[in-house]
Amino acid sequence: MEYGYRPKMLVYENLKNDSVLRDFHRRFRVMERVVFFPVDYVMPQAPVFGFPAGDAVSDSLYQLKAGLDMLALDRNTGLEVTGQVYGRLSKKLTSFLSTDDDDPVSVYKAKVQAEVGWNWINSKFYHGYYKERDIKLGTDIAKARQRLDDGRADMDAWADSLEQHWNHVIAGVMLCHVRNLDVLNEAYQMMLEQDRITSGQLLDVMNEKMQLEFQLAQFYAKDSIAPREELVWLKPEAIAIDTVSLRQQVAANNPQNLLNKLKIAQLDNNAKLLSYIATMRLTPFARWSTYLTSQDKISNNVDFGVRFTFPLWNATKHQKASIEVQKEILRDENSTYTDNVMTHCRMNIDAVRRLNQAIAVEYRHLTQLKKYLAMRQNTYAKNQGRYSYIDRLLEYNQYLKSMERLYTQMKERSLSLIQIQRLANVPNVHSFVTTTPIL
To answer: Could you say which of 108, 254, 303, 355 has the lowest number of CB atoms within 10 Å?
Structure first.
């Protein structure tokens, strides 16, 4: 299997003093360049999350659904047509039930009626504003439910992307370290062949080299871009988390809380639609009637009136009371949810605070080591060939180890911060985070 990073040889044969010295000088030139002239690198800034904007396809579908619901409501004018057609049985068969005289007006063989009524209570004209708002709120709630986890998914993707950026930076440090260990490995093997050192010193270098190469292999899998031998200078900052602002952001902007607020708004709207009148049917109508009389004549007439139905019960009071209870449940759920989020965030907040301290200490170590290397560089320049090449390379390795620790801690802090934002699911990390320079 191939990997983005391929280790060099671990065991060498027939090593020559001149070739080892050339490798030392090459490493010194590389280290002077990467330590004192690091490359520019801009670590990506956290984007703003929260309710995602959504993709065009899903948005258009929701808009289409809302538009169709609005069109259906707009066409509900309340007008309705009813009709009936029936005929009477023979008078001989119904004489024991019928009391009609042989009157051409009241007695008929068949009847056809057609009626146009206006059921205005169940139309768009009665509480039309609240019915339209119910459609809008229903659409918003459906979108919120679908996208509730989208913010977390986006933050997971952002965390993975940011981790890759940090891995690239840290791998550059590791690669410089490994290349230095390659040269030390050569030198120790040559010295071991000459019985100038013990095998323990060589094994320590080989073990350190193998551990670094194992980490590099984890950073860079088969399809990854191979790391470059370079150092990046990223000046750390202290991160302060305002827990009061964080709690306010969770309460105001967390998608779960926003979803519950939409549900509360929908319940408020539903309460407006509840009334005793809404359970009634009060329908003005115009009716056309055609009769076939007993004398086989056609008789027509037109009637106007009001048809009504009044329920003998009224549950509106209890239904509105039930809505108030549901709203209180949602409010309590929001409060409880906010408390739970803050509880889960607290571990990561504590981790950020601990890492702040560790980063500040390691940053001071690194700056002091860089000053030491600059001072030693002048000394080595004045004493060419009269110093220990191994010690000089080990000094650079100490600097690389410090930089690796610093960037690893900064990476862990960044991921902890994203985890806080993921748990809180707030739209803007900068709303509760401030940074200050580390002096």
So the answer is: 303
pLDDT value, residue 159: 83
SS3 state at 399 = helix
Percent helix, percent strand, percent coil in the chain, to nearest 5: 60, 15, 25
Range name among 52-56, 71-75, 83-87, 430-434 with the lowest pLDDT average: 52-56
**What does the alpha-carbon distance between residue 196 and residue 294 come to, in Å, rounded to a whole number?**
136
Check: CB of residue 162 under 8 Å from CB of residue 418. yes
Q: Say which range, 20-24, 86-90, 113-117, 301-305, has the weakest mean pLDDT.
A: 86-90
Q: Residue 318 is encoded by which pair of tokens? A: 């209890």
The answer to whether the CB of 117 falls within 8 A of the CB of 17 is: no
User: Quick one: which of 77, 174, 140, 190 has its CA closest to 401?
Assistant: 174
| Residue closest to 214 by CA, chosen among 178, 163, 188 | 178
Q: From CA 365, how far away is CA 372, in angstroms rounded?
A: 10
pTM for the model: 0.72
Measure the CA–CA gap between 261 and 259, rounded to whole angstroms: 5
Residues with Cβ within 8 Å of 241's Cβ and at least 6 positions away in sequence, in order, are 349, 352, 353, 420, 432, 433
Contact criterion met (CB below 8 Å) for 301 and 128: no
Burial of 21 (C-beta count, 10 Å sphere; 0-12/13-18/19+)? middle
Cβ-contact 5, 217 below 8 angstroms:
yes
Q: Which amino acid is at 141?
A: I
Mean pLDDT of the chain: 83
Closest CA to 254 of 349, 161, 344, 138: 344
pLDDT in tens, 138-179: 888 888 887 776 666 777 788 888 888 898 899 999 999 999
- In the chain, where the domains are located: 17-53+147-258+333-437, 59-146+277-315
Q: Tokens 């986890």 — which residue? A: 149
**Which alpha helices (H) appear in 48-149, and where do they start and end?**
56-74, 91-94, 128-147
Residue 145 bridge partners (DSSP): none
Return the amino acid letter for 6. Answer: R
Residue 293 φ then ψ, to 5°:
-75, 170
Q: Which residue has the tokens 């329920």?
A: 311
